[in-house]
Amino acid sequence: MLINAANRLVVLHRAIQPASGFAPTLGLRSSFKIQSRNLATVAVSADQSSSTSRTSSLPSISNIEAAWKEMSPQEQESIFHHLEGLQKKDWTQLSLDEKKASYWVSFGPHGPREPLHAPGSGVKLLLGITGCISAAIALFVLIRSASPELPRTMTKEWQEAATQRAIDQKMDPFTGASAQGEKAKTFVQSK
Length: 191
Fold this sequence. Notes:
single chain; mainly alpha; rod-shaped; oxidoreductase activity; transit peptide; oxidoreductase; membrane
């Protein structure tokens, strides 16, 4: 953008300076009119040449969705600025490809709006979680099947006998097994 502005200034400066190095002999007003006409034609031709050179150097916008990721950041920026200029026009004059490209560059799934999970990753996630849970259950069953039997003190008969012995010895008469009423506790834990 700055290069185009600098080129315009150089072209305008050359158009203002007389070719022979001295001012024309016409009056001040007539020389101003001639110079302003020259400025207008030079400015228009500079605008036309810069817009044609800009559009010729731009990649095609017809299938921007597919080509966007392969473009360099400079190409992406030039297309963005080109489409930004097109959006200032009347939208009824824009082609369908230009409208689609403008919308996609502004709101498409690229850059910060790129989805975190690719399409189809939900199935992979579900299969992974199911596999992990299945492996955990299999490991639990394997460990339980390889574990030794419970010790004899964990049987219900042993725990009832331990409770009877505590009552016979009058252990903890206030809150233990030999307590009266609802406060009585037993040693039975197994079912």
